[in-house]
Amino acid sequence: MIKHHVDILIDENSLAACVKQLGDNISTYYATLQKNSTHPLILIGLLRGSYMFMADLSRKITCPHTIDFMTASSYGSATMSSGDVKILKDLEEDIAGKHVLIIEDIIDSGNTLSKVTQILSLRQPASIEICTLLDKPARRETEVRAKWSGFTIEDQFVVGYGIDYAEHYRHLPYIGIVVPE
Ligand SMILES: O=P(O)(O)OC[C@H]1O[C@H](OP(=O)(O)OP(=O)(O)O)[C@H](O)[C@@H]1O
Ligand SMILES: Nc1nc2[nH]cnc2c(=O)[nH]1
Ligand SMILES: [Mg+2]
């Protein structure tokens, strides 16, 4: 790690308000879908970055749902996507016939989500959508569409609320920016 400090970009209250709003919008959407079909809803969190967002968001989604996790990693300890996305841990659950909502902390190059959606679409889900807390469109290498997105951010390296810098800072209750000194 280079010498740096962390400045707050999105504070705890703004995160909570955003998560509540996302939860309301997602609940309305799937409540309507579930009225006309029997397909269950499953939230899939991408480890490790999404763990905190997933925990908070699932508590704000009022329609019945189950949860599962998978690990797809491309960064290691680097700050640039390698583009080589590997599935390190697969789902426990079968997603055939289910409405799948992928929960992600950040879309940067888009490589992770593009690979994950590709893999999951082959398993006959009823639908697949993406909810991301943060979106950094300036860095996109592969097109990815998130139906729900919390904040669009500039091209800055962020940490906190699940997101790490060389495995540090995941526990911060806010989103911060790493500022080199
Ligand atoms: O759009 P991309 O350029 O693919 O980047 C986004 C992904 O990178 C980070 O995960 P990482 O692979 O570092 O693992 P982690 O979730 O365990 O921190 C982040 O949590 C996203 O999953
Ligand atoms: N910590 C961190 N990991 C990322 N992975 C993809 N984008 C980012 C980012 O801005 N910060
Ligand atoms: Mg991740």
TrEMBL record:
Name by which UniProt lists this protein: Hypoxanthine phosphoribosyltransferase
EC id: 2.4.2.8
Similarity annotation: Belongs to the purine/pyrimidine phosphoribosyltransferase family.
Cofactor(s) demanded: Mg(2+)
Keyword field: Cytoplasm, Glycosyltransferase, Magnesium, Metal-binding, Nucleotide-binding, Purine salvage, Transferase
GO molecular function annotation: glycosyltransferase activity
Physiological role: Purine salvage pathway enzyme which catalyzes the transfer of the ribosyl-5-phosphate group from 5-phospho-alpha-D-ribose 1-diphosphate (PRPP) to the N9 position of hypoxanthine to yield IMP (inosine 5'-monophosphate). To a lesser extent, can also act on guanine leading to GMP, but shows a highly less efficient activity with xanthine.
Record's catalysed reaction(s): GMP + diphosphate = guanine + 5-phospho-alpha-D-ribose 1-diphosphate; IMP + diphosphate = hypoxanthine + 5-phospho-alpha-D-ribose 1-diphosphate
Metabolic or biological pathway, per its Swiss-Prot or TrEMBL entry: Purine metabolism; IMP biosynthesis via salvage pathway; IMP from hypoxanthine: step 1/1
This protein's record includes keyword Nucleus: no
PANTHER family: HYPOXANTHINE PHOSPHORIBOSYLTRANSFERASE, HYPOXANTHINE-GUANINE PHOSPHORIBOSYLTRANSFERASE
Record has tRNA processing as a keyword: no
Domain of life of the native organism: Bacteria
Domain Phosphoribosyltransferase, chain residue ranges per copy: 25-165
Gene3D superfamilies for this protein: 3.40.50.2020
Pfam families per the UniProt record, alphabetical: Pribosyltran
SUPFAM superfamilies, per the entry: PRTase-like (SSF53271)
Major subcellular site: cytoplasm
Subcellular location per the Swiss-Prot or TrEMBL entry: Cytoplasm
InterPro entries: HGPRT (IPR050408), Hxn_phspho_trans (IPR005904), PRTase-like (IPR029057), PRTase_dom (IPR000836)
